[in-house]
Amino acid sequence: MSFRINPAVKFLARILGPELLHSAWLELLEYLPLKFEPPESLEVETKMGRLRCPVGLAAGYDKSGKHVGALSKLGFGYIVAGSFTLKPRKGHPKPRIAYRDSEQAVVNAMGLPNPGVMEFVKNFKRVEGCRVVASITGDTIGEFVECFKIVQKVVDAVEVNISCPTHEASMSMKDPKNIRELAERLREVKSKPAYIKIPPPVTSDEMDDVCKLLNVWMDCGMDGVTAVNTLLVDAPELALGRGGLSGRPLRPIMLKTVSRIRKELGEGIEINAVGGIMTGTDVLEALRAGANTVQIMTAMLFRGPNTLRRIIEELISVKAR
User: Fold this and answer.
1) Residue 131, domain CATH
2) Does 157 or 176 have the greater pLDDT score?
3) In a domain, 306, yes or no
């Protein structure tokens, strides 16, 4: 299937800017009568708990964590809020997000704007029927550990983001020595499941490096992986000149990565697949490649507020064939 962003959305984005438009949509969602409950047949057991369906909302959609209640009404199995840092961040200069309609993609150089982990925890309210995961990141191992200790008090699991392509400090964590130190220190304080979010491996050497990293992660008693983050690309339309590409172009990389991780690390690792998932068929392919759950975000922009309902209907249809 091929999707285009709704012309009305593009028009409003030109007037308001994509960020203000997104913020307005999240505020409006609190009052809209949108509610969807996936069929019980799609429930799945995970380390973060039993999910009503295997489709989650990826980090970056709700950067503040203020809207998980409203978003949960859409039927997600879980919602990843953030990423959060120890202190508030304003992010990179604007413009820092752009649509690439012909590619069914978005490129962003947001720079992790968020209110800080303490503000999230202070304002967080649990929601019924939907698990909540907090994505965290930091400039140092110490910051990662402190964020983890704080957020695990209120959420069901923690996603450790070492792969934001426009945040050099977190990307430096990719070294296996740093990962081992990080995982060993997390193990000392950990009471909730921990998933590491990895960059998209484009070359065979990068794929080998990812598997080495994950072996270290799992050896230290962690729980799983979110594969994959956005792909660093040139983006002259953004102030930074580069950004992370999400959407359809990530799908083949994601599928190959999930398949390799499952083959390499076996059944002990839990895999959350993200990247280019737009349809129910995409969900099924990711699950068959070895994922336990999937996450979507860019699809929401291209397919509208009923995206999850449509994907679930498609998933049920393709499974029945």
Assistant:
1) 3.20.20.70
2) 157
3) yes
